[in-house]
Amino acid sequence: MSEEEARRRVLAYFSDLDLTGESDTGDLDHVDHRKPDQWTGSIHLGLEFHEVRWDVDLSTRTPVPE
Fold this sequence. Notes:
Blueprint: H1 3-14, H2 27-32, H3 36-43
């Protein structure tokens, strides 16, 4: 996946969240408590957060269509 496609996916994923720190829904807290590999698995591979553990090999996975 290109860097540009990765950027589009991340921006689209977070487009509905209020990340100002003043959100009543705690959107910023939602972002902060996930690890980078969990975000990668969710945004790019379509996995649920609980499916991405430290010992899971994500290199064999194919990104979901954009």
